[in-house]
Amino acid sequence: MNSRDSFFEEVRVAQDRLINILRCNRDKYNNVDDLVIDSTYEAIYSVLEIIDGFNTTGKKYYLTDCTSEEAINSNSCLHNECENRLMHTIL
To answer: What is the pTM of this model?
Structure first.
């Protein structure tokens, strides 16, 4: 399996996990806005975890700003910043 296939397999696993989490918690939501907020938060968080190396392979990926050629995640884990930067509710 090449790197791209491996990455998308991790994304698929994250999607399956998110679907199961939302199915288990759907009764906790009083409105669709909160469900959408948490769904998108969890999806973004999961992809950032994969990029940061918190996945089944332990492989870390780097996100590079193509203009400056700086890796934006070289000294930190992006998923750790989600709680302070993105909207989420109860999930």
So the answer is: 0.85
